[in-house]
UniProtKB/TrEMBL annotation:
PANTHER family: NADPH-DEPENDENT DIFLAVIN OXIDOREDUCTASE 1, NITRIC OXIDE SYNTHASE-RELATED. Its cofactor is FAD; FMN. SUPFAM superfamilies: Ferredoxin reductase-like, C-terminal NADP-linked domain, Flavoproteins, Riboflavin synthase domain-like. Residues 12-155 form the Flavodoxin-like domain. It comes from Trypanosoma cruzi. Coiled coil: none annotated. This is Cytochrome P450 reductase A. One of its GO terms (cellular component) is cytosol. Residues 204-454 form the FAD-binding FR-type domain. Keywords: Cytoplasm, FAD, Flavoprotein, FMN, NADP, Oxidoreductase. One of its GO terms (molecular function) is FMN binding.
Length: 611
């Protein structure tokens, strides 16, 4: 028996706003469970691919949303969110909705976007089915810790729980539904010869950037290589069969999204594990036979192409295998009970430490997992449905739109590390960029950022660590390009790195700019490993608290850029203390209000990421 007013609903619409793919993964998990719970059909797609005017007629509607940058809308819900904020936004009267946030408490604006979306839909007349759910990636079980109890509430409110069902949903992976997103057709060469695609297409407006220069900025004996990469400002836009070359227009705070291709070596390994030929022609289409009636539009849908070309451009073979990938593999373990049990253990949240040790900490990719379980051979359609697509990586532009008229600059740290089992690992995209030579080209798109210059010259306080200097360099060089407008305005840069002689990047540049163009540019470096005691950017700010407070009272804007663990929070606490002690005579309540107003005025901006 079911209870609830919407037990008879046949279609569940699940929309997601994602930046890295996490919210998308949760959305497909929800859609799979919904079909198991009796919904005949599900939609599961990016919010921006579902007409906003159709939302109110699509009850029940579930939205799973992550954050981007400063609590802003992630890429796949940006347009919808912008329209929802307009005075002419469509009414949501009659909409029954639920919102779940895929956040991380490491960030200051934890699940800010999900909270705002929930509130705005209510303002427009929508009715929440249940209260919003707030997932935290930093929880012991990640987002699952909040996600599955929240799903239980959702099923109960929608009348999809049996009245005698226990009060907790357990992850019974033996019965967990496998939702295959794609159909894969193998086509004879003679039939497809004229239609075989030899050009990679993407959902974004892409262009080719040509490398002009690649220089290592850090010392050769430093543990990390940081590269300054200069591209030609003139890029080639790819519009179907037509190509055109124009200078790229961008603003301070923008970034380049870069697509990478899988290497021949990893493709060869995948083909060997699956016993498939890279020369076969395939055509991938959306699978609607299992209840998933609408999903994200993919640029490869309906385009015949050779399997090697398809794998090179569209699926991330070096991505870490997910728990759902292990769950899928377990269904194809045949009669080998030991292998099936092991795969289900790796998929279960009850054995999360085991999964983290085997997969996450070792960064075992899907190809390596297939090698470890070489007798398990799922069909290609299942493998593709549970492997992540090739996603672009976002790199902040470190050049100025005005100062650097002929070039686009990136500041890229090549990631490399050893796993607990002493395996050497490298970041795929950062290594790809670090190895670039003049003449190489990359497929890119422009990602609009959110670190604008003030509308008029006021003091700037810039705090950055490591490659977090990139957007700050863009900003400072843009000020330098303005001539006398910014030449006598105080600019304070607090930059953190390990050693003065190894990774104090762009130091000579700051000296030159302060001599010629920005006479009041002051750089306060914080070298965390040069002394007996670790010294970070927040300590440098505290040491110069009176100076910082004076700039704040003069209307300064604050920009904080760098790794999210834990620098932005530590810096925010230091600014709060400066606001209280130096701007408000030690009055804590006044200090809190002072900093609250500063943030409300848009004078405190953060651009941070997790490594």
């Amino acid at each position: 028996m079911h209870e609830g007013a919407e037990a008879g609903a046949e279609v569940l619409t699940v929309l997601y706003g994602t930046q890295s793919g996490c919210a998308e993964h949760l959305a497909f998990t929800l859609a799979s469970l919904a079909l198991k719970r009796g919904f005949k059909h599900c939609r599961c797609l990016p919010a921006d691919e579902f007409l906003l005017e159709s939302w109110k007629d699509s009850s029940p509607l579930v939205i799973i949303c992550s954050n981007a940058s400063q609590g802003e809308a992630p890429d796949s819900i940006r347009v919808s969110w912008s329209r929802l904020l307009e005075p002419t936004a469509p009414s949501m009267e009659g909409l029954r909705f639920a919102v779940f946030g895929a956040g991380d408490s490491l960030y200051q604006k934890f699940n800010y976007m999900a909270k705002m979306l929930h509130n705005r839909l209510k303002q427009l007349g929508g009715e929440p089915i249940i209260n919003r759910g707030l997932g935290d990636e930093s929880d012991a079980k990640g987002h699952d810790e909040a996600f599955f109890p929240w799903i239980l509430q959702l099923w109960r409110a929608l009348g999809r729980l049996n009245v005698d069902e226990p009060g907790q949903i357990t992850e019974d992976f033996f019965k967990f539904p496998l939702l295959t997103k794609y159909n894969v057709s193998f086509i004879e060469d003679s039939v497809a010869s004229d239609a075989i695609s030899q050009k990679a297409l993407y959902n974004e407006e892409t262009f080719n950037c040509v490398v002009k220069q690649n220089v290592r900025l850090t010392a050769k004996d430093h543990f990390q290589a940081i590269h300054h990469i200069a591209f030609s400002r003139v890029v080639t836009f790819l519009e179907g069969a037509v190509e055109r070359s124009d200078p790229l227009s961008f603003e301070v705070g923008d970034a380049l999204g870069i697509y990478c291709a899988n290497s021949d070596a990893v493709i060869d390994s995948f083909l060997a594990q699956t016993q498939l030929s890279g020369d076969v022609v395939i055509c991938v289409t959306p699978n609607i036979s299992e209840g998933l009636i609408q999903q994200r539009s993919q640029p490869f849908f309906g385009r015949p192409m050779r399997l090697r070309f398809f794998l090179m451009h569209y699926f991330d073979l070096e991505a870490v295998a997910s728990r759902s990938f292990f769950s899928m593999l377990a269904r194809f373990a045949g009669d080998d009970e030991e292998v099936r049990e092991r795969l289900f253990e790796l998929a279960s949240s009850d054995h999360l430490d085991d999964f983290m040790s085997y997969s996450h900490r070792e960064k075992r990719n899907v190809v390596e997992v297939l090698s470890d379980f070489r007798l398990v051979r799922p069909p290609l359609s299942f493998l593709l449905s549970f492997m992540p697509p090739m996603r672009p990586r976002i790199f902040s532009i470190s050049s100025s739109p005005t100062f650097d008229v002929s070039e686009i600059h990136l500041t890229v740290a090549q990631l490399s590390w050893q796993t607990p089992l002493k395996r050497s690992r490298k970041g795929v995209y950062s290594s790809y960029l670090a190895a670039a030579v003049p003449g190489d080209f990359f497929t890119c798109f422009l990602w609009r950022g959110s670190l604008p210059l003030p509308s008029k010259p006021v003091p700037l306080i810039c705090v950055g660590t490591g490659t977090g200097i990139a957007p700050l360099r863009s900003l400072i060089r843009e000020c330098a390009a303005a001539g006398s407008i910014w030449s006598d305005v105080p600019l304070l840069l607090v930059f953190g790195c390990r050693h003065e002689g190894k990774d104090y990047i762009y130091s000579n540049e700051w000296s030159e700019l302060s001599k010629d163009r920005l006479k009041k540019l002051t750089v306060l470096p914080a070298f965390s490993r040069d002394g007996n005691k670790k010294f970070y950017v927040q300590h440098q700010l505290g040491r110069h608290a009176r100076r910082v407070a004076k700039l704040l009272d003069e209307g300064a804007y604050i920009y904080v850029c760098g790794n999210s663990t834990p620098m932005p929070k530590d810096v925010a606490m230091t600014f709060d203390e400066i606001g209280t002690q130096c701007c408000c005579d030690g009055d804590e309540l006044r200090g809190q209000e002072y900093m609250k107003q500063l943030r409300k005025q848009g004078r405190y901006m953060v651009d941070s990421w997790s490594a």
